[in-house]
Amino acid sequence: MAKRILVIDDEVDIRDLIAQVLESAGYEVLHAGNGQQGLETIATTPVDLVILDIVMQGMDGWDVCEHIKADARFHHIPVLLMTVRSLISEQEERRNRIADAVLLKPFSLKDLQRQVTTLMNGISVLSPAITP
Amino acid sequence: MDAHVPATAIAITESVDTVLERITDSVFAVDRNWRFTYVNPAATRAFQKPAEELIGRNIWELFPASIDSDFYRNYQLAMVTGEQVRFQAYCEINRYWMHIRVYPSADGLTVYTTDFSEEQRANEKHEAQLARSEERYRMVADFTYDLEYWRGSDGRLLYFSPASERITGYTAEEFYADLSLVDRIIHPDDRGWVLPHFWREEQSPSEVYDFDFRIIHRDGTIRWINHSCQPVFGPDGAYQGRRGSNRDVTERKRMAVELERERALLRAVLDQLPVGVIIAEVPSSRIICGNARMEQICHHSVINEETGEWRRECQAYHQDGTPYQEDEWPLARVIAADETILDEEVHIQRDDRPEAVVLMSAVPVHDQEGRIIAGVVVAHDITAIKEIDHAKDEFLAVLSHELKTPLTSMLGWAEFALSQSGEDNLLRQAMVIVYRNARRQQQLIDELLDMSRLQHRRMGCMPEPADLGQSAGQAVERAREAAAKKEITLNVCLGDEHLPIFADPIRIELCVGHLLSNSIKFTSPGGTVAISCRREGKKAILTVHDTGRGIAPEALPTIFTPFRQVDRDEAAGGLGLGLAIVRGIVELHHGRVVAESPGLELGSTFTIELPIHQP
């Protein structure tokens, strides 16, 4: 059975791009247009990976990530956080560390695929200590 | 004794006789023919003859030398007029001074004499002293600059020094002749209080006076006079008058007025300044002046009325939030250590008012000998600027997101399209162009955002033990494609030596990347870009050398300034921010970056120095 990936981003073009790339690579991709929707999806459908944009209307990516990591049912799910900021503040850096990996936007498709593969294989890219 | 005289009368007469016999004052009586009728023992001593030789004898026959003396005239006067006479006289025989009282009666005269030589000698001595001191006083006063005067106990003007003419325009003689001249030359506005003052002075002679008033000089000008005077007393404590001095203080007054005007001007200027200012005396810490802006910044008046020191009811915090200790305040440091402080960021908080962010500078003021005499604190309220900064940060975050989100789609979809384009060359070429330009736009946006963060000290830095060679190696890998495209040889000599640094590896890689792309950009095809790193003592050093266009000597000093590109042309392109970002990041890591070039067309060398990390 194909591994299932949930993409949470309010930018439909980017969501579609990620889906296109990952589906081509053999994954099943679920879409969510905002944080709330994403959390609802996780609660109803088992997923193997969450790809999450930080800046979104309503709940931002950090909040969604904190929810996932705080919930015993889901905290094992690796989270790949997408951000547009290359040089970030310390506070942002701290919040990023909750996630398993960070992908800088704009990203190359190769980077995306490499990160996804790594996380699927159970290797945390960013902070191994947090990985369940 | 007469038998008819009553017993009591006899008793009184006997008592008087006894007293007269014993007293030290001389008492004698003469009849109307100047013959002695009574001489007491003291009188016999005074006349230096026994009573037997005196009684019944004519006084002028016994003492012919006294005829025409004061004694003779006064005794005659009493005898003729029948009135009491008192006088003082010097007794040649006994060489002493006497008070003499002459009481005439129907029988003749009774004379009482009292020796007061001791008293008289003391008086003579005092008068002589007084005369001498007066003489000396006049001698000194005649040559003094001030108008000296001396008035007797009756208010009479006894002396006016010659300086009167210079000070008032009137000579001393004119004042002697007309005492009211003194009153008339006093300025009409001051007469009201000065004249009663003079009157009171006469009523309370013991007081010492010192006050300023105005006179009108003979030439019509107004002069300020400082008047001081004190009473003079004799050895017996009797008031003898006043000595005083009048000094022309017009110039001093004028300077005081001018000084006051200058102070007012300084205050007005200070109050108009957009920065807070406080000037404190050293070492007392007393505030000489503080302006209105400073009071606004501190939210209260700046001078403690009791101590005269800087009143601080507000709390100050360092940038990291720790409170300032008393001795940490810039003014305290200037006073204590003669320190100069430039633009120290101080966060000021008072009660529940919004925090003020202030840049404080403090400088010592020295006298000619180099001693510190004052400290000046200048406070520039940058709260509004900080707020704008914050708004700018927010704006940058939004801008960053808004610009990069469409770029992410463009780049991603272009890359995807390329991977799917197959053999359709024209479509593939079109996608390559879209992709390349989107990449270029991304770099420009990154540079702008990085520069902006660096300038606003908003670039977070996550240092960790890292290796300079490793970061450089990754930057080299990223630069290989660009170098190859321009047919530039990339000489890499990073060595095997571990160069431990405490740094954010992503940012160091970014710096090296900027240097490499800069060198590639300004080197013609066929040229060489060389990168190497090494250790020199406690420094890790990375050098990027190229055979490119080089830098003109006059351009070297500003090479790291934002938006300065040495030679802007279309081929080079870019915003000219790369080197400024390099310097910003390197300095954030306590290092430095240097550019060198022998001249135009002679290539250039960029060197980054970072401290070696010793855990």
Topology of this protein?
The complex is a heterodimer of chains A (132) and B (615).
Chain A: E1 4-8, H1 12-24, E2 28-32, H2 35-44, E3 49-53, H3 61-70, E4 79-83, H4 90-96, E5 101-104, H5 109-120
Parallel strand pairs in A: 1-2, 1-3, 3-4, 4-5
Helix pairs in contact in A: 2-3
Chain B: H1 7-22, E1 26-31, E2 36-39, H2 41-47, H3 51-54, H4 59-62, H5 70-81, E3 85-91, E4 96-105, E5 108-115, H6 117-143, E6 147-152, E7 157-160, H7 163-168, H8 172-177, H9 180-185, H10 188-203, E8 209-216, E9 222-233, E10 239-248, H11 250-272, E11 276-281, E12 287-290, H12 292-298, E13 315-317, H13 330-337, E14 341-349, E15 356-366, E16 372-381, H14 383-420, H15 425-455, E17 464-467, H16 468-485, E18 489-493, E19 500-503, H17 505-521, E20 528-536, E21 539-546, H18 578-588, E22 592-596, E23 604-611
Keywords, separated by commas or semicolons:
heterodimer, A: 132 residues, alpha/beta, 5-stranded parallel sheet, 5 helices, globular, B: 615 residues, alpha+beta, 6-stranded antiparallel sheet, 18 helices, 42% helix, rod-shaped
How would you sum up this structure, described in words?
- The complex is a heterodimer of chains A (132) and B (615).
- Chain A has 132 residues and is of the alpha/beta class.
- In chain A, 39% of the residues lie in helices and 18% in strands.
- Chain A has a five-stranded parallel sheet with strand order 2-1-3-4-5, with helices on both faces.
- In chain A, strand 4 (79-83), helix 4 (90-96) and strand 5 form a beta-alpha-beta unit.
- Chain A is globular and about 35 Å long.
- Mean pLDDT of chain A is 87; it is low at 124-132.
- Chain B is of the alpha+beta class and 615 residues long.
- Chain B contains 18 helices and 23 strands.
- In chain B, strand 22 (592-596) and strand 23 form a beta hairpin.
- Chain B is rod-shaped, with a radius of gyration of 55 Å.
- The chains are: A alpha/beta (132), B alpha+beta (615).
- Chains A and B meet through helix 1 and helix 4 of A and helix 14 and helix 15 of B.
